[in-house]
Amino acid sequence: MKNQNPNKTDYDFLKPLLDRPDLEPDPTFIISLRKKIIKSNNSKFRLPRNLNIIGVGLLAILTLSLLIYTFDFGGHSTGTLVNQAIKEPGFGVENDVDKSIERVWKESPLFESGSDTLIGEEGRLGFSYDDGEILRFYPDKTQKYIWYFWGEEKEFDGVLKFIGTHENDEKQSVVYGGDFYKANNKADRQVHTSMNLPKSGMWRLDAYIGDKLFGTVFVKVHTQSQKESDVLIRGGYTLEGIMGVLLGTLDLFYPLLIASVITFVFALIKRSWIWMLLSAILLYPDAWFFSGHPPYPWAKFVPLIQVILAIIFYLLKSNKSKT
Question: 301 burial class (0-12, 13-18, 19+ CB within 10 angstroms)?
């Protein structure tokens, strides 16, 4: 039990016992009584029990929502590559991808657009990619990518679709891109996708608007052995290497985000500086990743705000223990 100076209420309550030493109360009784007094004095700083129950309920709902969001990253602005035959009713694109495309399976070049590095065809289309550990493709690794498009206004009249083809397999996979958005990276349009390519090797990603081919991007999916090597070579030496291993190789983007939100809510309910600091640590890799994308430059300040809250909670707790 922490040492605390008795206030006037404590003294008035214990004075009859101190004035009658002949009573010789049990020491354990005195200790127990002292604990009850301290608990009673501090009760005004505690959140009501029913509020804790409500907080736990909201936390459970939030966690479930995040899990659903993680495994069903759908909506108008996202899509996921799935193994579906391209012969779907109403798809509107011929089964054989444009034969005029030269079948040269070489990874598309990187180019700069604004503050971002993209892969694709400069001035036509590309998506955020720098061949770093975070954005690098590995088999069955799901990752968010922002696509950018340049073209005339009439070219964007239609539904965006992506078709993925592996160099050694004529079977094609389909991703539905959804609606376009005005881009803020000196492009004409942009769309967010969540892509997962199932096996290693070269892939061709064909972007269709309606039934017309807009452009093509070639990407490489690295092997598992390369993935394991990246952990040893890139991990732990630089901040980028650490973030790359956490978010890229180990694919902990969503688990870290969910864990951070859970600990953050718990910290607010309990007013715990330790849980708030843990939430900031868990969120930092995701905030570091988001801060590198144009829509979220402010993300890097979120962990800093959490650290400030942790300091405030610590000072409040220290001040309370001295009263």
Answer: exposed
Instruction: Tell whether 287 is covered by a domain.
Output: yes
Task: Work out the number of other CB atoms within 10 angstroms of the CB of residue 237.
Answer: 9
Given this model, what pLDDT does residue 87 score? 38
Q: Is the pLDDT of residue 97 over 50?
A: no
Percent pLDDT > 90 in the chain is 12
- Domain annotation covers residue 24: no
Radius of gyration of the chain (CA): 29
Q: Out of 222, 244, 271, pick the residue that ends a domain.
A: 222
Distance CA 85, CA 218 (A): 20
Q: 228, exposed or middle or buried, with CB in 10 Å at 0-12, 13-18, 19+?
A: exposed
pLDDT in tens, 27-84: 676 677 667 666 665 554 454 555 555 555 555 555 555 554 444 443 333 444 443 3
Domain that holds residue 295: 252-322
How long, in residues, is the chain? 323
The answer to whether the predicted template modeling score (pTM) of the entire model surpasses 0.85 is no
Do 216 and 316 lie in one domain? The reply is no
The helices-and-strands tally (H runs, E runs) of the chain is 8, 9
Q: What is the DSSP letter of 181?
A: B
218 plus 313 within the same structural domain: no
Q: Which of 41-55, 142-156, 284-298, 299-313 has the lowest mean pLDDT?
A: 41-55
The 10s digit of each residue's pLDDT in 189-213 is: 888 887 888 888 999 999 999 889 9
Q: Nearest-CA neighbor of 193 among 83, 82, 74, 67? A: 74
Whole-angstrom Cα distance, residue 104 to residue 190? Answer: 26
CA–CA–CA angle 219, 187, 284 (5° rounding): 70
Measured between alpha carbons, how far is 1 from 255 in angstroms, rounded to an integer?
37
Number of domains in the chain: 2
Query: What single-letter DSSP state applies at residue 137?
Result: B
